[in-house]
Design a protein that fits this description.
This protein is of the alpha/beta class. Helix content is 41%, strand content 13%. The strands form four sheets. A seven-stranded parallel beta sheet has the order 3-2-1-4-5-6-11, sandwiched between helices. The chain has a two-stranded parallel sheet with strand order 7-10. α7 links the parallel β5 and β6. Bound molecules: nicotinamide-adenine-dinucleotide. Homodimer.
Length: 433
């Protein structure tokens, strides 16, 4: 026996009472009364705290969770719409769940899939990160092409399960995310909600679906972070993100690896490089530069240290769509079933860029010519809040394996964007931002 065994676990626990039995009994009864009294007080306090606490409020306060609703789906008419939208209409067609379908890239990808006869069902929470009326206009466009967008959140597992019960999707094109690098300082939890929790929620449902779908999803060029070696290659390090957005995309790539490894899900990550074009995102520079040049407002043009050029590998939306479709078409089947892996599955990552970075000043020159207006340029130091100095894609892997070959230069692509912009916001009918 060790000397430690002699010591009572609670000091004093085994001390003998010296007082008589009756005295002990009275003291015991009064202790019970005190204990009951304090228990009631304690319980009361817990109840008061619970009903006053914001987390018990049925309406979530966190803006990132605003759209997590479960009451606007279900019923036989709804199921019929879902089935009809996802019905494959061509031989060898695929049936795709497109998340983020009311978004910029999601709209274009959905239209392209539908056009070639694939079944497409959209899912989007229509959050107000940027003007939701633009998302609703994109939805109207998709409706005209026969694509139905279910309004819901990727964190709503009950909804996702229901969708997989109604349709045996062969593929998921996962584009729903909280985008933008600077907004992460304002609303960091929205990035965790959509890009991490939402991704896990989606993969959980995909891994249990029978059959499991193949998943193609949007990562980002921002995973290259502070790297200085150019052009960025898929083999380069991606462990020094410059923004929370980039960190959540990098986390997504690691999460994808896990689900591929454990459950046999076929997963392809696409690192998009600054996508632009008609129906684009109002938070992106080419979009709000156009708006502000037309309004005669000054535009911020960032400059790196020692007057260094800030440049982006701008990629036109149609080229990105071709890359997405090629990734879907070359995706192998997932190998698991019922949540169990049956064999190794495909895991891929590709850069989808344009291979020719353009200085932001040149972007403004082109916009000035197209808009026939002079921009009021406000040269500023590049803030250290997420933006990197340049992006430049090496696309040889995508070229080899997806036959990806971007064909639209910035001048041609911006011309199409400006034409759309002027038409969409014509005559001040709709105000951009
Ligand atoms: N556009 C680019 O330049 C670019 C560059 C790199 C990566 N990406 C990635 O490509 C994807 C598409 O980008 P985009 O430019 O079309 O952005 P977008 O913001 O226009 O589209 C994203 C859509 O997802 C929806 N969404 C967000 N969180 C959701 C949630 N929790 N549940 C359901 N829907 C949700 C939004 O309402 C939005 O309509 C994103 O994953 C983005 O991170 C885009």
């Amino acid at each position: 026996m060790s000397h430690l065994d002699d010591i009572p676990s609670t000091p004093g626990k085994f001390k003998m009472e010296k007082s008589p039995y009756i005295h002990n009994r009275l003291r015991w009864q009064s202790s019970i009364a005190k204990l009951t009294f304090w228990s009631f007080i304690f319980l009361g306090l817990i109840l008061v705290f619970f009903f006053r606490s914001p987390s018990s409020n049925p309406l979530p306060q966190d803006p990132s969770r605003r759209s997590l609703r479960t009451d606007n789906w279900g019923g036989s008419a709804w199921e019929k719409r879902v089935r009809s939208s996802a019905r494959v209409r061509s031989r060898n067609g695929i049936s795709v769940l497109v998340t983020g379908a009311a978004g910029f890239v999601g709209t274009h990808v959905s239209v392209a899939l539908k056009r070639r006869g694939d079944g497409v069902l959209g899912l989007d929470n229509f959050n107000d990160y940027y003007d939701p009326s633009l998302k609703r206009a994109r939805r109207a466009l998709l409706e005209r092409s026969g694509v139905f967008i279910v309004e819901g959140d990727i964190n709503d597992s009950a909804l996702l399960k229901k969708l997989f019960e109604v349709v045996a999707f062969t593929h998921v094109m996962h584009l729903a995310a909280q985008a933008g690098v600077r907004y992460a300082m304002e609303n960091p939890s929205s990035y965790v909600h959509s890009n991490i929790a939402g991704l896990v929620s989606l993969l959980e449902v995909c891994k249990s679906a029978n059959p499991q779908p193949a998943i193609v999803w949007a990562s980002s060029s921002s995973v290259y972070g502070l790297n200085t070696k150019v052009p960025f290659s898929e083999r380069d390090r991606t462990d020094q993100p410059a923004s929370l957005y980039a960190a959540t995309k990098k986390a997504g790539e690691e999460i994808a690896h896990t689900y591929n490894h454990i459950y046999g899900l076929s997963l392809t990550g696409l690192r998009f490089f600054t996508v632009y074009g008609p129906w684009g995102r109002p938070d992106m520079a080419y979009f709000f530069f156009t708006r502000d040049i037309l309004k005669g407002k000054s535009i911020p043009i960032f400059e790196a240290a020692n007057h260094g050029t800030v440049a982006r590998d701008f990629t036109y939306i149609d080229d990105i769509v071709k890359g997405c479709l090629a990734a879907l078409d070359t995706a192998e089947k997932s190998t698991g079933s019922g949540g169990k892996k049956k064999g190794p599955a495909q895991l891929r990552v590709y850069n989808l860029g344009n291979t020719s970075p353009v200085p932001v000043t040149q972007l403004v020159d082109i916009l000035e010519r197209l808009l026939k207006r002079k921009a009021k340029r406000n040269i500023m130091k590049l803030p250290q809040n997420g933006d990197v100095q340049f992006t430049h894609a090496n696309i040889s892997l995508a070229q080899r394996e997806l036959s990806y070959k971007p064909t639209t230069d910035l001048q041609t692509g911006l011309k199409k964007f400006v034409r759309w912009y002027l038409g969409y916001y014509s005559g001040g009918k709709k105000a951009a931002g």
